[in-house]
Design goal:
The strands form two sheets. This protein has a two-stranded antiparallel sheet with strand order 1-2. The protein has a two-stranded antiparallel sheet with strand order 3-4. Helix 2 (61-83) packs parallel to helix 4, helix 2 packs antiparallel against helix 5 and helix 4 (112-135) runs antiparallel to helix 5 (139-161). Helices cover 60% and strands 7% of the residues. It contains five helices and four strands; from the N terminus they run E-E-E-E-H-H-H-H-H. A hairpin with a 2-residue loop joins strand 3 (34-37) and strand 4. The chain has helices at 44-54, 61-83, 87-105, 112-135, 139-161, and strands spanning 8-9, 17-18, 34-37, 40-43. The longest helix is centred in the C-terminal third of the chain and has 24 residues, at 112-135. The chain folds into two domains: 8-53, no CATH class; 61-161, no CATH class. It is elongated. The chain is mainly α.
């Protein structure tokens, strides 16, 4: 450790010398603790505090979203066996519809866990139809159910989590 009073040490790692400060709270942080944001480097605590502002989901949203996503995904998977190749076009639409239905029942409240839960529920809702196709040894059934499951679930997650693709 240096005796120079102008030397900064990381608030979380007292043995690490740094020149970097959080641009929100001015706490000294090292490269391990720094999180790059669009406005500069911040400490992990400030980033967590900012993320909590955007997480507005209430406890009732979780079971409602789970039920709605599972039922709608199951209905979509039921219809897949009748449409075959058109699944490529309708599965993303189904994922979008399920996402909007989930957003509606949650009254547009959101959280990271809620979007993940909706995706898991949709997978669980569609999974029985994939398992039935596997047990009946129907190659086309397996393919189209798997295509539906992957495309629908990824679209659903994308729509609810707000991933930006640039």
């Amino acid at each position: 450790m240096s005796d120079d009073p102008t030397t900064l040490y990381c608030a979380n790692h007292p043995n690490t010398i740094t020149q970097l400060r959080c641009n929100r709270c001015e706490k000294p942080i090292c490269a391990k603790c720094a999180v790059l944001t669009p406005t500069g480097y911040r400490c992990k605590e400030c980033v967590r505090a900012q993320q909590k502002v955007f997480e507005t989901a209430q406890w009732i949203d979780y079971p409602l979203v789970f039920i709605v996503a599972a039922i709608l995904a199951g209905l979509g998977a039921f219809g897949v066996r009748y449409i075959g190749f058109i699944t490529f076009f309708l599965a993303p639409i189904a994922g979008g519809i399920i996402a909007e239905a989930a957003r509606f029942v949650a009254r547009k409240r959101r959280s990271k866990r809620l979007s993940r839960l909706a995706m898991i529920a949709a997978i669980l809702g569609a999974l029985p139809y994939l398992l039935m196709a596997i047990l009946s040894f129907s190659l086309y059934g397996i393919i189209w159910q798997a295509v539906y499951l992957v495309m629908m679930a990824t679209t659903l997650y994308y729509r609810l989590s707000g991933i930006n693709i640039r």
